[in-house]
Write a structure and sequence with these properties.
This protein has about 170 residues and is mainly alpha-helical. It has seven helices and no strands.
């Protein structure tokens, strides 16, 4: 049921509670009471937090290892660039650009699959109709991907910054 237009919902909830002795809440109060119940009385927030933390750690480790292997396999090419006079800052910008392109493509594929999953499951099962992908989650994920890719890039570039350009001429 809804209150008539112009009726203060807080006062209406107090009147209902006074009449029948039951707890009456406005829509917003009911929403926060439900959220509070799940936060205090279930393990869902802890389990969800652990899942997100593990996803972040595993994702960062995979990205870091991938970039480190990329740098190791191309160390001679970076040495050749340095021998031609390319500065460390230019190499850093090149690798960061590559990292941003890869991160952008990966993010677009991942967020597209996620949005598709929510769209399909909300049509298949009535129990999953409330699932949606808020823009805040998509933006937060983009920021997280950006942080992971920048950290992984800088961590893997240490070897490039100290490589001797003469490595190109060694057998």
């Amino acid at each position: 049921m809804h209150a008539r237009p112009g009726v203060d919902t807080h006062l209406l909830a107090q009147r209902i509670a006074a009449v029948n002795g039951l707890k009456a809440l406005t829509w917003r109060e009911f929403t926060w009471a439900t959220i509070g119940y799940y936060l205090k009385r279930t393990g869902i927030p802890v389990n969800f937090g652990i899942t997100v933390a593990l996803g972040f750690i595993v994702g960062a480790a995979v990205v870091g290892q991938t970039f480190y292997i990329f740098v190791l396999e191309n160390l001679r090419q970076f040495g050749a660039l340095k021998a031609m006079g390319v500065t460390n800052s230019t190499i850093l910008r090149m690798v960061l650009l590559q990292a941003m392109v890869v991160a952008g493509i990966g993010y677009a594929i991942g967020i597209g699959l996620c949005a598709g999953f929510f769209e399909i499951t909300s049509r298949i099962s009535i129990n999953l109709r409330g699932f949606e992908l808020p823009w805040e989650v998509a933006a937060g994920t983009a920021c997280t991907v950006l942080v992971i890719i920048v950290i992984a890039s800088f961590a893997s570039l240490r070897k490039v910054m100290v490589v001797d350009p003469a490595i190109v001429f060694r057998g």
